[in-house]
Every structure is written in C-alpha cells, then in structure tokens.
Recover the amino acids of this structure.
C-alpha cells in the first residue's frame, strides 16, 4: 500500500480538506484508488473531470459520495467498474488492477434500465447471459433475490407493468444476481417520489446487511447519504476532488427515526456547509 | 330512443377495424359516381366506377396473371432493401467514420429521381425481372436505412454501459440490447419501404417491360382505355395494402412488447 502522504501536486484548497476520517487500512480487499484522475478529451480541448483522488473503501462497507452535480461522481463509478480508463493513477479492486470491465460489480443507475422485451426474471438474469454463466444454477438465486425485494409473483411481468419503485428493485436484483463483491449505485432513487425513496433506503440498507456487499452509492441528498452510509465522501465542484470524508457514528440497524438524532442532524449540517461555502448544491 | 341490445351488436360491427375504411371507400366511390353524373365528365377523362368494376370482373384472370410479376419484383426489391439496409444502418450507427463517408452520399443518391435513371437499368439488364427488382430496391432501401440508423442510435448509452460492465462481448451486447431496441424503428422503416417498393416495381415496368401491372397501365393509357387503367390502379393499391398488412403482422409477432402493442394493465405497489 501507498503511504498516507498525498502527492504534493494535488490542488486542494485547505479549507475543504477536512479529513475527519481516513480509515484506509493496509489490506488488499475492498476498493483502493491511488492518484486516480480523469480528463475527457473533447474538440474544445481537455475537460478535467476528476482531480487526483486517493481513498480506500473497505470490504462490506457502505460508502456514499455526495457532491454538486457535474462534479464527476458518475465518472468515478465508470472508472471503478472498468468502463473508462483513468487518465492517471490506478484502481485496485480486491488487489487487482482495473483495466477493463471486470464483472465483480453490479451497477444500478437512476433509471431502472430494464429491457422492455424481457420479463422481470429474465431481466434479472441478464448478467448471467452476458457472462455466459450456467443459467440453471442462477435461476433459483434470481428468484430468491426477487423474493428478497418483495417482487415474488412478478417474475413473468414485463417491466412497464410495474411501478417505478418496483422496477428499481428489480434492477437491484439484476445488480446482485451474479454475486459481485461490489454494488455501484448512481443516484439509484433519484427518480422516485420522496415516500418511495425513504422506503427504498430502508430496504437497501436491509439488502446490504443481508448480502454483506460493498456498496458505493452516489447521491445528491445529504440526509440520504448520512442515513445510509458508514462513511460519506464529500466532493468539490468540477473538477471533482475530495473535500472531506466523514465517519457516520450511528449504530446499525438504523430506522428512519435516526433522522431525528442530534448526531444525524449535526452531521447533515456539517456536510451542508461544504456546499454553502463553495456555492449551491444545484 | 334506440334499444340498447340490438344497437350494441350493430355498433360493434361498425366499430370493427376493417369496417371503417371500407365505409369510407364506399363513400368515396359514391362521390366519384355522383361527380361524373353531375358534372358530365366524359369517359375518356375519368371512367365511371361501374365501368371499372366491369373491367375488373371480365379481365380478372388477365389482371391477376399480370399481378404476379409485379408482386414478385416488389417482394424481391423489398427483401433486398431489408437485407442491405439494416446492415448498412448498423455500420453507419456503429462508426462515425463510416457515417461521415457514406451517409451524405446516400442522401445525395436519394435525391436522384429514380424514374430518370430507370431506363439505364433496361439498357444494362434487359427487359426481364432484374431492372424492376433494382428499381423497387432503390426506392425501398432509403427509408429502411434512415429508420434503422435512428433506431440503433437511440439506445440509452447507460444501458449499453450496463451490459458492457457485465462483461458482455461487443456482439453479445449488440444482440441483447442494441438490436432489439432498434427493431420498432426498423419496422416502421420496413412498412414505408414495402409500399415504396410497389411504386418502384411499377416504375421499372413503365420504362421497359412486357408484363406486370405497370405494363398494363402503360398500354391502357396509350389506347385511352381508362377503365382498364383504373382497374390496374385498384389492383396496385390492393397489392400495397396486402404487403403492408403482412409486414404489420410480422411486426406484431416480433415485437409484442412494444408500446404500440400494449393492451394489458399496469401493476403498482
């Protein structure tokens, strides 16, 4: 592992650099980013999206990233899943360097992105088809996952016959069916109404506890971040850099009541200040 | 007041999908007949519907016989459009380089009036079936390409990323995501294409042929035999409708999941 000293060329305003937590252990499991940056090449010249990032996500951790829109959060997700190569630095997943899609991730986007011509069950089975894994072996697992998220009996329905929340739950099953170590979620509940969203948060927390996956979740909502996370990474505006990483010292399992806890509200306030000091959250 | 029961049977029949266009057709024919009587239009300008029907009855075997070459040329031309159009669209949608080279030329070639170059095909390929097939193909090709390109390009990039992140190969991702996604657009292109292929085949028959409905029309115009010409038009229209209907049926079989085919209810939690 690298030493904890950061490369000196990283431009990070001291005011934003409030590392309340840096639990970066020295084990190889989990996700490690060292000096990872991304610059998009476009016709109008280079567009920096991410400034060099260094952080470590422990195995089984619920890690949430909050930041203003356009700060490169989604780029971060594509880098870790291997869809995009970083411009510099390296990403290690369980000690292996990521250079191409590695299949050890399940991805959930803001839209459920279910294929309209496949029924719910065969949508969930898509990763199995893509990775050419034995169908018969995973079919039972797919059914159990659908049961876990409360979609039992909807296996043969087509996606449009389900509500938005149900579709998103099916897409969570799809992200889990090939038993990846990591779940990457890009504003997974951003398109849902507030009530459904709260319920999905509770449900997601339960699913994460039952499956023990490492979760990297990206969100705009600070209360959602604090409610879900073991640690919250706050990002600066584009090009994105780490403003701070916070521990969330709230005990698990958490219920929605935790939102009234002084620790919770204080942490939300503290994170919110980052955005007021650098502009709006959009 | 009308009673509810018997009326429902009648209104059900009136509401059947095929009855409405049929009723409208009857209305048009009556208006046509009335116009001829009222304005005393001479038969060498527009024939009366009754004359056209009479020709359709007496010359039916001959018209049917002439219908086959046209149908054959249309179907061959249409199948070629689909066979070449869809792969070309795949290349154009898949590669910016191919698109920049090919697409403008394709649009350019489309602006060339086919009827002007159709005689060339006769010079090259003689009076057989080939010039007609080529003519039908040239008219049917473009709508397939344009629609299919649009279909292939409108795939959600996130969906493709998702499938790629599942370690799907390029071909697997294409087969599982891009192709089915493009099918509705491809079919709408095919439906336009099949009707245009009929026109193409007739154009081919106009310029040089000794069989087919287009040939019958050409010949009857020459002799001012307007009832026969109109009868040929009716046959052509029927041919177009039947072919369109067949493509429409195939579409329903292939993409039953599409929005346009939905009738079921929505579940909500």
């Amino acid at each position: 592992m690298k030493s904890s000293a950061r490369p000196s060329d990283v431009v990070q305003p001291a005011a934003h650099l409030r590392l309340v937590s840096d639990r970066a252990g020295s084990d190889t499991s989990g996700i490690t980013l060292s000096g990872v940056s991304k610059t998009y090449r476009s016709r109008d010249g280079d567009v920096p999206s991410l400034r060099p990032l260094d952080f470590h996500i422990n195995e089984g951790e619920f890690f949430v990233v909050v930041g203003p829109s356009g700060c490169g959060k989604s780029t971060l997700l594509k880098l870790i899943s291997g869809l995009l190569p970083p411009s510099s630095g390296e990403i290690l997943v369980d000690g292996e360097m990521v250079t191409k899609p590695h299949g050890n991730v399940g991805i959930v986007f803001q839209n459920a992105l279910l294929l309209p011509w496949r029924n719910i069950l065969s949508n969930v089975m898509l990763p199995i088809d893509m990775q050419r894994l034995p169908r018969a072996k995973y079919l039972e697992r797919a059914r159990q996952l659908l049961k876990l998220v409360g979609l039992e009996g909807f296996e043969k329905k087509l996606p449009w016959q389900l509500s938005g929340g149900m579709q998103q739950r099916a897409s969570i099953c799809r992200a889990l069916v090939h038993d990846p170590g990591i779940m990457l979620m890009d504003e997974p509940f951003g398109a849902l109404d507030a009530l459904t969203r709260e319920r999905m948060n509770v449900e997601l927390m339960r699913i994460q506890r039952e499956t023990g996956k490492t979760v990297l979740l990206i969100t705009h909502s600070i209360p959602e971040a604090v409610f879900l996370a073991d640690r919250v990474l706050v990002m600066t505006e584009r090009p994105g850099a780490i403003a701070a990483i916070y521990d969330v010292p709230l005990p698990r399992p958490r219920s929605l009541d935790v939102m009234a806890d002084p620790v919770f509200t204080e942490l939300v306030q503290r994170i919110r200040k980052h955005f007021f000091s650098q502009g709006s959250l959009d | 007041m009308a009673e509810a029961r018997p009326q429902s049977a009648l209104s059900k029949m009136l509401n059947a999908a095929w009855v409405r266009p049929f009723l409208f057709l009857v209305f048009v024919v009556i208006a046509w007949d009335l116009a001829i009587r009222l304005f005393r239009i001479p038969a060498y300008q527009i024939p009366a519907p009754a004359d056209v029907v009479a020709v359709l009855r007496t010359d039916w075997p001959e018209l049917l016989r002439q219908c086959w070459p046209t149908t054959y040329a249309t179907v061959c031309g249409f199948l070629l459009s689909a066979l070449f159009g869809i792969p070309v669209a795949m290349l154009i949608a898949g590669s910016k380089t191919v698109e920049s080279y090919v697409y403008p030329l394709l649009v350019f070639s489309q602006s060339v009036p086919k009827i002007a170059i159709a005689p060339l095909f006769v010079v090259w390929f003689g009076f057989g079936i080939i010039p007609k097939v080529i003519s039908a193909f040239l008219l049917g090709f473009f709508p397939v390409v344009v629609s299919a390109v649009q279909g292939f390009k409108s795939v959600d990039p996130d969906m493709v990323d998702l499938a790629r992140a599942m370690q799907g190969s390029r071909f697997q991702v294409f087969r599982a995501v891009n192709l089915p996604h493009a099918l509705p657009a491809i079919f709408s292109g095919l439906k336009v294409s099949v009707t245009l292929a009929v026109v193409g085949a007739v154009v081919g028959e106009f310029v040089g042929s000794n069989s087919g409905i287009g040939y019958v029309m050409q010949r009857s115009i020459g002799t001012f035999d307007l009832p026969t010409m109109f009868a040929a038009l009716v046959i052509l229209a029927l041919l177009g409708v039947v072919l369109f209907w067949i493509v429409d049926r195939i579409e329903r079989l292939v993409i039953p999941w599409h929005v346009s085919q939905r009738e079921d209810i929505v579940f909500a939690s």
In short: Chain B is about 80% helix and 0% strand. The interface with chain A takes residues 156, 158-159, 161-168, 172-173, 176-177, 180, 255, 257-259, 262, 264-269 of chain B (CB under 8 Å).
